[in-house]
Design goal:
Elements (H helix, E strand, L loop, with lengths): L5 E6 L8 H16 L4 E6 L10 H7 L10 H14 L2 E7 L7 H10 L6 E4 L2 E4 L6 E7 L14 H10 L6 E7 L5 H21 L8
Parallel strand pairs: 1-2, 1-3, 3-6, 6-7
Antiparallel strand pairs: 4-5
């Protein structure tokens, strides 16, 4: 039986396909497809506000010992969780908004991080129930949040790392294009540096990369 990689692509920017984070996430998917040309990509676009906040049905169920509703946000949650479960690789393209994740990504996380479905409550704390798999996070930010030239705090990467670990996803790799508010020449240098990081990473994984 031939293995066919399934990639879940979650794109979070309200700027859509012109967004720096979207373009970076597409580069990651392109490199994955060099290894698995037949890979199937599920595109979950959420930057357009299509994922609503959780509703009363969801909140009541989460506050109960059992799921007491399968309507409203609970029904949407099940769709999103199944997308996540079926993926062999997850690629998230997201901007940094106000030092952390945008509200669209937070809404998606609120739907997929669900008691009794993607994590269990135990005496030792919350334990994830999902199978671990590679998760790539492509981040774009107007300012710099890491490295020697960082000028702002970073609440995005520690939050995503912690919340995904809570549901069993630990194999995370972050790539970023930072300082997009700088002059174009500076941003171009940053893109080139990030491109080199991508090439190095996927070369180490044994994927033959082709410079774009």
């Amino acid at each position: 039986m031939t293995f066919m990689m399934k990639i879940l692509h979650v794109s979070c920017s309200p700027r859509g396909e012109v967004a720096e984070s979207y373009q970076l996430s597409c580069k990651i998917i392109g490199l994955l497809r060099q290894r698995e040309p037949a890979a199937v990509v599920t595109n979950r676009v959420i930057g357009d506000g299509s994922i609503p906040h959780v509703d009363m049905d969801y909140a009541i169920s989460q506050a109960s010992l059992h799921d007491v509703s399968q309507e409203g946000s609970m029904a949407l949650s099940e769709i999103l969780v199944k997308e996540l479960e079926s993926a062999d690789v997850v690629v998230i393209g997201t901007p940094m908004h106000n030092l952390t994740v945008p509200s669209a990504l937070k809404a998606w996380l609120d739907h997929v991080v669900r008691a009794r479905r993607t994590f269990d409550m135990t005496a030792a704390g919350k334990v994830g129930t999902l199978r671990d798999r590679p998760v790539y996070i492509a981040v774009a930010s107007g300012g710099r949040f890491s490295g020697e030239r960082a000028r702002q705090p970073d609440f995005l990467t520690p939050y995503i790392t912690t919340i995904l670990a809570m549901i069993g996803l630990h194999d995370l790799t972050f790539f970023s294009v930072q300082g997009t508010g700088a002059p174009e020449a500076v941003v171009a240098e940053t893109r080139s540096a990030t491109e080199a990081e991508l090439q190095d990473h996927f070369s180490i994984l044994g994927i033959e990369t082709q410079a774009s």
